[in-house]
Design brief:
Blueprint: E1 10-13, H1 19-30, E2 34-38, H2 52-63, E3 67-71, H3 78-92, E4 97-100, H4 115-143, E5 146-151, H5 154-158, H6 164-184, E6 189-196, H7 221-227, E7 238-242, E8 245-249, H8 265-270, H9 272-275, H10 287-299
Parallel strand pairs: 1-2, 1-4, 2-3, 4-5, 5-6, 6-7
Antiparallel strand pairs: 7-8
Helix pairs in contact: 1-2, 1-7, 3-4, 4-6
The structure holds 1,4-dihydronicotinamide adenine dinucleotide.
């Protein structure tokens, strides 16, 4: 089979100064894409800023014979997101691919989490992904082509102690991705999300050190690169990926239980087992499909 290449494509990768984003940028550039390497260059909590990390990755790409340009702006501000997109337009004349990857952690048990800790994490992951995609959207629509990958997390999909802010942002990105997939369909834009597991500065004190290599960032990037390739047909999907394993995550609905006429609290109690049944489940592709069983119930 032929190698997947990205010649003629322009990619923006946010938070590409370290970790997963750096690997995404190196891989796409190594396969012929022109890449905007964005990174604010702060620490894991988002404190501080430095143009160094983005610049270092650009130099690495150039040393390997690729094309890239650095951008040190903040994804969480309107001006920053617009500047990131403008960097792509100025340097390469267009945009084809957006990988929303930038992220920070401000973990705290819910009891102690402050509104500032909540807002700060939502701002980078959720609002930042919105702002960058939003700044790129008109260009993608106009050219009738685009590939977007948003970075969710198992913590968002399933919850995780100490991460009420982070998991809210990460599950928010699932809804965001699915809606972009619907709105982008007739313009050739495909949007998907990943829920990765990898050894980076974000997880080095959470994951066992013995697994550092097995959970390398290079075990996540191939999925991202595939999802942003022109041959990818998937859209609105979420994939968990790490250590060389990839799986589709399903937002599914059980068979349910229903009755006509009055519904009492006791009806709910008495049918709790049927309400909670997981099989046979459906995986609705949109709200229309999700409404199907309700419409059938009302009509039956
Ligand atoms: P990382 O800390 O190595 O990389 C995140 C990058 O984003 C950093 O280089 C940072 O400077 C940059 N960044 C932070 N705020 C920014 C802003 N406002 N504007 C521009 N750049 C900004 O961490 P890692 O692990 O590579 O994380 C990448 C993404 O993957 C994040 O969204 C993270 O939440 C997500 N993720 C990672 C997991 C893992 O196991 N490493 C698990 C689940 C999700």
């Amino acid at each position: 089979m032929s190698e997947l290449r990205y010649e003629g494509r322009v990619a923006i990768v946010t938070g590409a100064g370290h970790g997963l984003g750096r690997q995404h940028a190196l891989e796409l550039a190594g396969r012929g894409a022109k890449v905007v390497v964005n990174d604010l260059g702060g620490d894991r909590s988002g404190a501080g800023a430095s143009a160094g990390p983005a610049q270092d990755v650009v130099e690495e790409i150039k040393k390997n014979g690729g094309e890239a340009v650095a951008n040190p702006d903040n994804v969480a501000t309107v001006e920053g997101a617009q500047a990131i997109v403008q960097t792509a337009l100025d340097a390469f004349g267009k945009i084809d691919i957006v990988v929303n990857n930038a992220g920070i952690l401000r973990d705290r048990s819910f009891k102690n989490m402050t509104p500032e800790e909540f807002d700060g994490v939502i701002a980078v992951h959720l609002r930042g992904s919105f702002l960058v995609a939003s700044a790129a959207w008109a260009h993608l629509r106009e050219q009738g082509y685009g590939r977007i990958v948003n970075t969710s997390s198992p913590a968002g999909l399933f919850g995780n102690f100490g991460q009420a802010n982070y998991s809210t942002a990460k599950m928010g990105l699932v809804g965001f991705t699915k809606t972009l997939a619907h709105e982008g369909r007739k313009y050739g834009i495909k949007a998907n999300a990943i829920a990765p597991v990898a050894w980076t500065r974000m997880t080095e004190d959470l994951l066992p050190a013995a697994n550092a290599d097995a959970l390398g960032v290079d075990k996540v990037t191939p999925l991202v690169a595939y999802l942003v390739h022109e041959s990818n047909e998937a859209s609105g999907e979420v994939y968990t990926v790490g250590g060389g394993r990839v799986a589709r995550i399903l937002v599914a609905e059980g068979p349910g239980w229903g009755k006509k006429g009055d519904l009492s609290v006791e009806d709910i109690r008495d049918n709790w087992e049927a309400i909670n049944a997981a099989e046979p489940h459906t995986v609705p592709a949109n709200v229309g499909e999700q409404m199907g069983p309700l419409i059938q119930h009302l009509g039956s």
